[in-house]
Every structure is written in C-alpha cells, then in structure tokens.
Amino acid sequence: MSVDYTVQGQVAVLTLNNPPVNGLGLATRVALTNGLARALADEAVVAIVISGAGRAFSGGADITEFGSPKAFQEPNLLSVILAVEAATKPLIAAVHSVCMGGGLELALGCHYRIAAPGCQVALPEVKLGLLPGAGGTQRLPRVIGVEPALNMIVGGTPVKSEQLFALPGQKLFDKLVQSSESLLAEALAFAAEVANARPLPLVRQLPCSHPQGDGYFQFARNRVKGMAKHFPAPLKCVDAVQAATRHKFADGMAFERDTFLNLMWTPEHRALKHLFLAERAAPKVPDVPADTALRAIKSVAVVGAGTMGGGMAVAFLNAGLPVKLLEAQPEALARGVATIRQSYESQVKKGKLKPDKLEQRLSLLTTTLRYDDLHDADLVIEAVFEDMGVKEAVFRELDRVMKPGAILASNTSTLDLNHIAAMTQRPQDVVGLHFFSPANVMQLLEVVRGAQTATDVLTSVLALAKKIKKTAVVSGVCDGFIGNRMVEHYLRQAGFLLDEGCTPAQVDRAMETFGFAMGPFRMSDLSGNDIGWAVRKRRAVEKPGFKFSQTADLLCEQGRFGQKTGAGWYDYVPGKRDALPSAWVTQMIDAHRASLGLTPRKITDEEIVQRLVFALVNEGARILEDGIANKSSDIDIVYIYGYGFPVHRGGPMAYANEVGLFNVVAAMQRFAQNPLDDAAFWQPAALLQRLVLEGKTI
Length: 698
Ligand code: NAI
What we know:
Layout: E1 3-8, E2 11-16, H1 26-41, E3 47-52, H2 77-85, E4 91-95, E5 98-100, H3 102-109, E6 112-115, E7 120-122, H4 136-144, H5 146-155, E8 159-160, H6 161-165, E9 175-176, H7 183-194, H8 214-228, H9 233-246, H10 249-264, H11 267-281, E10 300-303, H12 307-318, E11 323-326, H13 330-349, H14 355-362, E12 365-368, E13 379-382, H15 388-401, E14 407-410, H16 417-421, E15 430-435, E16 444-448, H17 455-467, E17 471-475, H18 481-500, H19 504-514, H20 520-527, H21 529-542, H22 551-557, E18 570-571, E19 580-581, H23 583-595, H24 605-625, H25 632-643, H26 652-659, H27 661-671, H28 686-694
Parallel strand pairs: 2-3, 3-4, 4-6, 5-7, 6-9, 10-11, 10-13, 11-12, 13-14, 14-15, 16-17
Antiparallel strand pairs: 1-2, 7-8, 15-16, 18-19
The structure holds 1,4-dihydronicotinamide adenine dinucleotide (NAI).
C-alpha cells in the first residue's frame, strides 16, 4: 500500500508510504483519496493527520508520469487537493524532511500544517521548465506573502521550515515542533486541539496582494528576464503569482492550470525533464548489477601535480578525502602545491570559502616524491604528461607499490586505456577517470571502462563521483572516448566553414545564438589550439587522407595557441579574455581560400548550426552503434556538462529527436553532396537510418 491507514485515539493518520520520497503517482493518489473517504466515513474519527513515512513528507509529483496520461488520470493532484479542502473534519499536514512540489501543494490544501525543523520546503517545478500546477502559485503567496513566495517559485530552491516559520505574519505553518521524532505525537495532540474548530480554515480564503501592486511585478519581471534567458517558465511564474493578486482564487487557479499545461508542451520542459531522467540513469550500467559490492575509497593518491592533478586534488580535498600528491621533481611538486593553495585563497577572497576551511582542507594534503609512499591509498589517479611512454612507466611503478585491491586510474584524454592496463599485473583494477578542466569546477567525469575493468571498480568510482559532486558517464575505450571523439567532427565542420566563406566570429555567433556557452573558435582559444594540432598530426599518420581545413595548422604555425599565448583565432589584450576579431586571421583565411581556388559563398546561420550539431549527432549515433556509450542520454549529459551544449536543447541526441530524425538524416545526405566537405562522414549512421525507417526516436 502506498498510504498506510491507522487510527490513533480519535485521529486517523494517513501515512504516505511510497519510497523513496513518497511521490504522488497515481497509485498513491488513489490510496490517499480512499483513506480520506474512510476517515470521513468513520464516526469515531474526529480529525485526520496526513504524514510521510521514511525520509520525506513528499517529494511531489512522480516525474516519470509527466507527459503520460497517468499524470492527468483521476484522481489527479488537483482533485485530491479539492477533496482535502472539502473535508468536513480538520485535516492536518505533518511535514518533515522533504516537502516539495506537489507535496507542498497537498499540504497547502490541508486546513492546518505543522512542521519539523530542518524540513526542506520548495516548489521546484521551474527546474523542470514548469510552474507548480496544483495551486502552488495561488496558495503559497497567500500564506507567506507575495515576495517570498515568488522568490521560492522562480528560484525553485528549498527553504528550511524554521526559516519560513520565522517570516513575519506567515500562515504556512501553524506550529513548528521540536523534532522529526516528536512530529507525530505533536500532530496528534494538535489534532485533538482543533477537532471541534469550525469553520475550518482554508488557504484559498486568505487575501493576496502586494503593497506596490503591479509595479512590483514589473520589477520582478525585469529581474527574472535576465536570469531566465532561454526558458519561458520563470516569467510565467511571475504571471501566475500576479494573477493570484489580481483575480479571484478560482480564476487564478484556472490561469495557473492553463499556463502549466502550455509549459508542459514546450521543448524547454522536455529538455529539462530529459536531463533530469538522464542524470538519474547515468550511473546505471546495463550489465552491472546495482547491488555490486563497493570497494571503500577513503584515501586518494594523485600522480602529477600539473593542471589536472592539482584540480583533481582540490575536488577530493573538498569532499573531505585525504590526498597524497606525487611529482617527479621537487620544483614541480612545490609549484603544484602553491597552485592548490592559491586556488583556495582566491575562494576565500571571493567569500566562497570560510578562512578556517582553507587550512582544514590543506591539512588533508600530503606530498611525496617516492612511489612507495602511495602504497596505502585506496585509489590512485595518474595525471602525468599525455605520452604513452611516460604513462607506461608510471603504471609499472603503481603496479609494483600499490596495495592489493587498490584502484588504479588514468586521466588520459586520448590514449588507449587497455594498453595502459596491460602494463600492470592487475588490469581488472585499472579504469579511466577522465576529468575535464578545471577539474575541481567542471561537473562532468567520463569513467572509461577498459576491456578488463572489474564491475566493482566501476561501481566504486561511480559512487566516488557522486561523493565529489560530479556527474559521471561510462564510456568504452576508443580514441577520444565519448566527448572528444565527437568534438573532433564538430571542429572539422567549423574548419570547413572557414574554407567555404565564414569568419570565426560568424560561426561562433551562430552557435552562441543557438545557445552554446562558447562557439567552437572561442572554445579552442580557451582550451589551447595546440591540442587539436597534436591530434591532427597524429591523424595524418593513422588515417592518411582524413580531411581537415588547413587554417588551424596555419594558425598554430604562427604560435597562435589561443588565450595562453595572447593570440589565437582572435586577438587578446593581456590580462583580459575578450575575443577581438583579428585582421591577421581574416587575411590568413582569405589567402588560404584563394590558394585553393575557392570563391567564398554566403552561409546561413541555420547551415552553420546544422552542420556542427548534426556532426555531433552522427558521430554520437556511431558511438552508440559501437557500444562506446550505453545510452543516448549519456551522450547528452557529456555534451551539456562537458562542452557547454545549451541546456534548453537537452543535448545533441535529444535535439535530433526534437528536429525529427527524418529531417536530420535528410540534412546529412544534403551535406554529403558538398564537394568541400567529407562525404564519407556524412553517410548517416546505420542506427539513424534504421530509426527513421521504423519511425522511432533515438
Ligand atoms: P600538465 O603538463 O599540466 O601536468 C603534468 C604533470 O605531470 C607535470 O606537473 C609533470 O611534472 C608531471 N609528471 C610528468 N611525468 C611524471 C612522472 N613520471 N611522475 C610524476 N609526475 C610526472 O598536464 P595536464 O594538462 O595536467 O594533463 C595531465 C593529463 O591529464 C594528461 O594525460 C592529459 O591528457 C589529461 N587531461 C588533460 C586535460 C586538460 O584540459 N589539460 C583534460 C583532461 C585530461
């Protein structure tokens, strides 16, 4: 049963019991309605308490029901709340731990609410591109005031029950009890107190206004517009709360419902829902049982204290894990430690870290120049130069010194993990942990599963990723893994566009208007053009004839590696990051084009976006065919968290579904006709062709 029914004295207790967070799916709604009817019919019952079992009162709607008829099936949440309001006996919501979304809306429909301290109260629907659709925008302003309510509805972030209880004049909570443990007893006592109270109070009958009236909402709209950017929901939240101040309750409810239903059909909501589910699905690996025992990771060693080693050390220290840092040379070690300290000091300066935390975190860091000192670490990650010879030597050493059962990881971004694992006598303990730079900031972690990586190694590093607040995606072994394998084709297209008539600024602008945090040329200037140069040199040997625009090589031959050298695709003023169009680059591209005998053509932003994004889609589909990624939503996660793909588009694969795979494949076939492009690459992946024939999505 998803709602437990008991009678204690003269009070019926309906306990939501639908783990993990008492989501209000159809079965729970039916059980709640039945429980309510039973309590109302029982003459011995004088009052009713609604509570939540386990670790929540209720986390709200069941997101997997969104977009399916189940979400609307009766009793839907609105009908449940109407039934609650219409109850002829006092109804008391007793909330603890988590009271969010539909859970809070249900509580707002009750006659009384009492709360345990520390309860996280929120209307987080905006984070899914929606607004609260069961009265939240109409009832919350009536109990805590328009401004606090709008802040909660637009922000979606939880506020603690005691903070809300402290708001002047609030009517959200009738009582704040001592603790979660005493909540039920106090709820029963409260129920006895109000058993005979009539008329029963209803939130809908409370007034709702703001002293500055519409002036306030104009101000709110201006603020929200800046934050909302590509998302319609935040402004709609303002509209809905304003409706609460302007209209009768029933009309405000109708407005909220209409707006909610309209938002449900937006691509932005679909994108955010997709990402929410994608994140939850990411750690699930099809052939790895969820109950695989974990190896404890209580201490970490990092080999190499450069850019990545330092960033990774900070990520572990922030999670309270002791880190031992190893370098080949004392100078490099001192430099690495100084950078870590500076990174913390700058956080303290910006007020992001309390000063006492700085020393606390650094006290977890120890250093060494000797491999033998790493012996005890549960996990060791190598972040030395991207050179197979150097990595081979490091892994032989790690194999010699590390205790049995320790996990041996490499942060390589391009090298063959299986070859690295073969340098040890324990390839089952070797895994790739591909962090993105800056490693303590970027949320993405590609976990690279070698041919022999043990399942418990995989699950243990996935659990560790969660601990250090990373979103981890599992990738098989291939050149570039998921993200860099795809980005190569994206960057190739950007190069071809220069040959055909674009400027770097035009391409960047088109991609940034589409929603990318940075266009491909600004991104390359930031990460360093020399990285791609090295890849192209390698490709020239491995895959002779593999096509690239030569402009990027011409750029690198001038030492224009990007921001770090003060010049790349753009010019940079020392100390600043503004990308300034470069006359030299324009001239170089024009001259190169002329040397190929090409006449520049006018290229639309639509073509730019399609060629770059569909290049990601085609390679993404091949990655799925090859079994490198387990599911297409993993690819979306990689691109959103690692490469600045626009969140409101849901990732490249989700975007392809939005556009329609038929259209995507047709565009690829068109691009294949362009003699300046790579016709072989644009053959649509077999997976895409099959899905089009079957009328399916990715
Ligand atoms: P880096 O050049 O900043 O740092 C490498 C460090 O390793 C240097 O401090 C060097 O002294 C040390 N080192 C070299 N040989 C060593 C040895 N035998 N024993 C101990 N220490 C040794 O390089 P970075 O950028 O930190 O890259 C490290 C690894 O991370 C590479 O495999 C790279 O492909 C990978 N990576 C780099 C990313 C980036 O954006 N920089 C992103 C993701 C992965």
